UniProtKB/TrEMBL annotation:
InterPro entries: ATP-cone_dom, NrdR-like_N, RNR_NrdR-like. Keywords: ATP-binding, DNA-binding, Metal-binding, Nucleotide-binding, Repressor, Transcription, Transcription regulation, Zinc, Zinc-finger. Negatively regulates transcription of bacterial ribonucleotide reductase nrd genes and operons by binding to NrdR-boxes. NCBIfam families: transcriptional regulator NrdR (TIGR00244). Its cofactor is Zn(2+). It comes from Leptospirillum ferrodiazotrophum. This is Transcriptional repressor NrdR. The gene is nrdR.
Length: 156
């Protein structure tokens, strides 16, 4: 591992531990030349699934795209970045349990909507309006009625 300070390609591991989510390893290292300390992370490189879009196109799964969609849904809502990251982690965990390399975008959208309906109804309706391609106010109203009639009793 190259030292980020002096670029010498020799360092020693001082401490290793699991990351908070248990899916990686955090290593504290020390350069053998300049004695600077730095942290590295290691994760298992999983093969990314392919997302099959509504029109049949296929594209590699992109975590950043999912994060950005959630950020837009939660814009100006009282939800932390850590909570958004936790949602993405949970969705990815669910997707990893599916034993196929191709995942319909519809399935990812359903997982997002499940999480949003439990956390924030405004974010849910924002996401649903794009995901379900609402064309008029009546479709919004029907979705809100459906959401209100669900088992979740939180106010909109």
């Amino acid at each position: 591992m190259n030292c980020p300070f002096c670029r010498i390609p020799d360092s020693k591991v001082v401490d290793s531990r699991l990351t908070a989510d248990g899916r990686g390893i955090r290593r504290r290292r020390e350069c053998t030349a300049c004695h600077a300390r730095f942290t590295t992370y290691e994760w298992v490189q999983e093969s990314a699934p392919v997302v099959v879009k509504k029109d049949g196109r296929r594209e590699p799964y992109d975590r950043n795209k999912l994060m950005e969609g959630l950020r837009r849904a939660f814009q100006k809502r009282p939800v932390s970045t850590e909570a958004i990251t936790a949602i993405v982690d949970e969705i990815e965990r669910t997707l990893s349990e599916i034993s196929t390399q191709e995942i319909p975008s519809r399935r990812i959208g359903e997982l997002v909507m499940e999480h949003l309906s439990r956390i924030d109804h405004v974010a849910y309706v924002r996401f649903a309006s794009v995901y379900k391609s609402f064309r008029d106010p009546e479709e919004f109203a029907l979705e809100i009625l459906r959401l209100k009639s669900g088992s979740d009793t939180r106010p909109l």
